[in-house]
Amino acid sequence: MEDKVRVVIAEDSVLLREGLTRLLTDRGHDVVAGVGDAEGLIGAIGDMAAKDELPDVVVADVRMPPTHTDEGVRAAVRLRRDHPGLGVLVLSQYVEEQYATELIAGNSRGVGYLLKDRVADVGEFVDAVARVAEGGTALDPEVVAQLLGRSRKQDVLAALTPREREVLGLMAEGRTNSAIARQLVVSDGAVEKHVSNIFMKLGLSQSDGDHRRVLAVLTYLGS
Q: How far is CA 200 from each of CA 69, 92, 125, 208, rounded to the nearest angstrom?
């Protein structure tokens, strides 16, 4: 039996919110508040913090009113910033990469990101809530895979100089080396050197032949 934890649930669907409340209370946990939008979540946590009664964990949906896009995860990021000791478990139907990265970055203690369609076991979900409340993590493998992929792409392009990024951007527009040289007011030789450095930094060897230019552009567009 897990230690009892205090939970706030932020979910705009009344049926799902009540269902989560029932799941957690049946396992002996204490759902201290349930809200239907991000503004209500921020307000509830603010009121609890003022009384020195912060919950152990917030369970929040990514998509919440009014736009049903990313209000929930943005609220989660804000709560992590304002209350670093507060556990936050985000539930979503997709991976919102930008805010997921920000949520996890810096301090991954007490944070979770689960995909709703991949939660196959009620007991595992309740265990995840308790684990995050106690400072652990609960990350869906698909979330990890997508964030790692995003990180690798960013790291690769981060190795390029500003001028090399500019050259690569012009390559992505379909311009030849000569056209790029005219655009940047530099010699053809200077552009060729930049292109060679881009290939090297992106790990594209001469064995890739003429495909290197295409592969470089695809890496740029995929970032």
A: 39, 39, 45, 12
